[in-house]
Amino acid sequence: LFHLSSQFLNPPLSSFLPHEIAQQHICLATMKLSALLLASIASSSWAFVPTTTTSPAFKTVMRMADPVDKSMRGIDDGDVFDPTAGDNPALLRNNYDGVWNSQRARPRRNRKSAAIRGMVRECIVTPNNFIYPLFIHEEDFNTDIPSMPGCQRHSLDSMITEVGESLELGVNTFVLFPKVPDELKTNLGVEAYNPEGIVPRAIRMIKEKYPEATVVTDVALDPYSDQGHDGVVEDGKILNDVTINQLCKQVVCQARAGADIVAPSDMMDGRVKAIRDALDSEGFTDVSILSYTAKYASAYYGPFRDALDSHPGFGDKKTYQQDPANGREALIEAELDAMEGADMLMVKPGMPYLDVIRRLKDHSDLPIAAYHVSGEYAMIKAACEKGWLDEKDVVLETLTCFKRAGADIILTYYAKQAAQWMKEDGLY
Fold first, then answer.
1. Among 179, 185, 317, 348, which one carries the catalytic annotation?
2. DSSP conformational letter for 59
3. In angstroms, what CA-CA distances link 154 with 157, 172, 198?
4. Is 295 in the active site?
5. Which residues 6+ apart lie within 8 Å of 179 measured at CB?
6. What is the per-residue pLDDT across 274-303, written as a single tens digit (0 to 9) for each?
7. 348 part of the active site
8. pLDDT per residue over 340-372, tens digit each?
9. Going by C-beta distance under 8 Å and a sequence separation of 6 or more, which residues neighbour residue 364?
């Protein structure tokens, strides 16, 4: 550019100016030509940006701006307030007459570059933090779930493919949720502990093909119940201890199939202790318990129940799941679950209950899990399909929020996709 600038000057500056001054003029011309070329490149690249976008987070090209006179003198006409004037000025002037806020602590210094932001980042989410929920059914084909775009009920062969692809992306842990045929559903949920049922077979298939995968199982009767509830029903009431009797059979069946972690989601009182004792008495002392400690009677579960066809047959689940208005109650559940032998504690739903995640994190030394539930997933999907949100940005921000609130583990239907985004961005 320096050479080109000197060639474009006609006549040559050296013919009528001293050498030093001529060099200064050539440098100035070089700077102007550089700016012109940069502006040309920016305007050319703009032509390759789509004219429409589904994202409000659309990135624009930075425009060239003139240098700013930091004294800010003479920029206004008329009687305009001067923040540096008067007996009690809002701003001072530094040694170079620039406007100056005398605050010493400036948090923006730790945000001034990607390198520094990365160096001081408090929470980092990786695929190791994810548990990937997989819906499975007995069919030999996959079925889309309309209320959960992008999610499917998998055949067992498709489940194996999904596990393999996810492992390659660093997602190592999976939780299985079965859609059980109606003819196998009963009030006692006996299909839950059929060793040839869909979940035990799925566990064995995963462990045979991918022994390094960690398999989590859901422990509750609702997928197997003709009443659509998490427990055994009598006269409209969920029977606590009778339900636990069935859950103990279920976890032993799952452990025998090869489950690494069992996750009781039923919210029966005392079930963690009974499950721990059942597993230990059968020699499964290494099988972990991820307890749904604070599972709320939430309106965010609708799409999940669509996926499993497990809507309550009557009433609701408010007599055993927690009241959304209560936060301290979660601490009672957490203390009991820890005392009864839980290895990890879960909060469900996730985003509307970040305060509960933080409460558990502050009061327990056990790992805390957050379930990014189907309703939260569906809301993001719907907004992104409308073009109101950037899916990648909002999902990664959401997952980071779970981590910031205190979650060590995140159950999310976005696990595979988020891991792919992270890999593409070189985040791990």
1. 348
2. P
3. 8, 18, 12
4. yes
5. 135, 136, 137, 153, 223, 307, 308, 309
6. 999 999 999 999 999 999 999 999 988 878
7. yes
8. 999 999 999 999 999 999 999 999 999 999 999
9. 334, 338, 345
